[in-house]
Amino acid sequence: MEQIENCNPCLSSINRLFKTLNNEQSQYLEEQKICNEYKKGSILYKETSRIMGVYCICKGVLKIYKTGSDGKEQIVAFARSGDITGYRSILSNEAACTTAEAIQNAIVCQIPSNVIIELVKTNGNFALHLLKLTCRELNQANSFIKDIAQKTVRERLAETLLMLEETFGVTEEGYLNIILTREEIANIVGTATESVIRLLSEFRREKIISMKGKQLALKNKPYLQKLSKAFN
Hints:
The chain is an alpha+beta fold. It has 2 domains: 2-148, Jelly Rolls; 152-228, Arc Repressor Mutant, subunit A, CATH 1.10.10.10. The protein has 8 helices and 11 strands. A hairpin with a 5-residue loop joins strand 5 (61-67) and strand 6 (73-80). Helix 5 crosses helix 8. The longest helix is centred in the middle third of the chain and has 27 residues, at 124-150. The protein is elongated and about 60 Å long. The N and C termini lie far apart (42 Å). The relative contact order is 0.13.
């Protein structure tokens, strides 16, 4: 981690949450934030640790994951430019329940906890927007629990591939605009790495996807959509 003088964009330009602030509050926020540059693989915060503020991603991508008793990661979300993370622990005044790690070089602004709490108390629109973000997280968690209980690994992999394309888009060549290891994909799906490697090979043979190294392109999205909605 390396502290930088300031990130170029103001927070209100990259996240709707901060558009709810008036000029005085925006100025206060800009003065209090701390901007850091994180290299790929850097940990921003860990499970069970105390988070000292909310993180707003100005550039790059973070993976947000929980760690099982066996040390295996379960990726529960990604945070990219314009997203914020860590706010749930600040609002609940509890230790972090996830770990945030940069999977690309990232520039992230940290907003101190006391600043966030003050804005929640004094700005109803800000508080309401944070509440909506928290509800969305809860809905995503409920969907994941349902998928684990009802969908096969093949169906969950199809859903994951579609989610990655929707979240990150594609390159000019049509490949997913995010490169993940097979282990990381398995950690999203919630299965063994070997199972993901086997299923990706099956998808390639069936011309559902194409692969070039770690890059993936979706070639038969209608099939993946039908497969992923088996229990929706």
